[in-house]
């Protein structure tokens, strides 16, 4: 049963199909709720979060609050580590956040497993499953449970990036580095190479090189064309 979920999530073509696959796998794994989030870092400004989940409607607003994520010990662990975290009330109590656990516990978020995959170019994939009942106490069952979730996460992140960030993965869309994207963003604002270099803490020559590289990758003849094409592809906003 579980093995089919590892590969069937790769067949998802829409956000709805992706949600159906991750929810189905989560329930076969013995959990009720799941959240899958693609995080895209930006050198300047806030990171971008794209989440698919089956959070109860009554808890949706609180769950989606990014300020809560910033102080949530589970999210903070995943932000800094690739190792999964098995969490419960103690995880929150040790950080002085017992009241936060009490709030989410009312909606079934009492125990869970969460993990993050950190990829090149400032992309991350977070996967968390939650339930009302404790996780297995014996080491063998727990090891198998975590291993199954890790394997599923590897497959799910591939589908998530393809479905949730289509502009970055569209056929023919070039792969620009974070620096190249940032220099294009500032070029869009009318900044010169010298000004971009000052803002990013790099030399004028290096800033110009990033713009030239981006222009070449986008198949454009000048930086203004490159900015317009990057906007059209959704690479910058």
Number of H/I helices: 13
What quaternary form is this? single chain
CATH level-two architecture of the largest domain? 2-Layer Sandwich
Number of domain units: 2
Write down the CATH topology of the largest domain. Answer: Beta-Lactamase
The string of secondary-structure elements, in order, is HHEEHHHEHHEEHHHHHH
Total beta strand runs: 5
Arithmetic mean of pLDDT: 89
The stretches of 5 or more residues where confidence is low (pLDDT under 50) are: none
Report helical residue fraction.
40-55%
Radius of gyration: 21 Å
User: What is the fourth-level CATH superfamily of the largest domain?
Assistant: Transcription factor LuxR-like, autoinducer-binding domain
Instruction: Sum up the overall morphology in one term.
Output: elongated
Structural class: alpha+beta
Q: Give the strand order, joined by hyphens, for the main sheet.
A: 2-1-5-4-3
Distance between the termini: 42 Å
Highest CATH level, the class of the largest domain: Alpha Beta
Tags for this entry?
Beta-Lactamase; Arc Repressor Mutant, subunit A; 237 residues; 54% helix; 5-stranded antiparallel sheet; alpha+beta
Structure overview:
It is a single chain. The protein has 237 residues and is α+β, with helices and mostly antiparallel strands. It has 2 domains: 2-168, Transcription factor LuxR-like, autoinducer-binding domain (Beta-Lactamase); 170-233, Winged helix-like DNA-binding domain superfamily/Winged helix DNA-binding domain (Arc Repressor Mutant, subunit A), CATH 1.10.10.10. 54% of the residues lie in helices and 15% in strands. It has helices at residues 2-8, 15-29, 60-64, 66-71, 73-80, 89-93, 98-105, 139-164, 166-169, 178-188, 193-200, 204-217, 223-233, and strands at residues 33-40, 48-53, 85-87, 111-119, 123-131. The protein has a 5-stranded antiparallel β-sheet with strand order 2-1-5-4-3, with helices on both faces. Strand 4 (111-119) and strand 5 form a beta hairpin. It starts with a helix and ends with a helix.
């Amino acid at each position: 049963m579980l093995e089919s979920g590892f590969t069937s999530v790769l067949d998802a073509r829409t956000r709805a199909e992706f949600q159906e696959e991750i929810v189905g796998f989560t329930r076969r794994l013995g959990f009720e709720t799941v959240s899958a989030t693609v995080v895209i870092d930006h050198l300047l400004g806030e990171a971008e979060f794209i989440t698919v989940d089956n959070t109860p409607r009554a808890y949706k607003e609180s769950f989606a609050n990014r300020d809560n994520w910033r102080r949530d010990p589970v999210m903070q662990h995943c932000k800094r580590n690739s190792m999964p975290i098995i969490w419960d009330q103690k995880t929150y109590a040790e950080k002085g956040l017992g009241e936060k656990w009490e709030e989410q516990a009312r909606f079934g978020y009492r125990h869970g497993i969460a993990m993050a995959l950190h990829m090149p170019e400032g992309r991350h994939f977070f996967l968390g499953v939650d339930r009302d009942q404790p996780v297995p106490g014996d080491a063998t069952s727990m090891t198998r449970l975590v291993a199954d979730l890790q394997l599923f996460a590897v497959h799910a992140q591939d589908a998530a990036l393809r479905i949730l960030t289509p502009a970055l993965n569209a056929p023919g869309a070039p792969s620009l580095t974070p620096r190249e994207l940032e220099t294009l963003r500032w070029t869009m604002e009318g900044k010169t190479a010298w000004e971009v270099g000052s803002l990013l803490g790099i030399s004028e020559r290096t800033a110009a090189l990033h713009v030239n590289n981006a222009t070449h990758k986008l198949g454009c003849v000048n930086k203004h064309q490159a900015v317009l094409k990057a906007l059209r592809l959704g690479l910058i906003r």
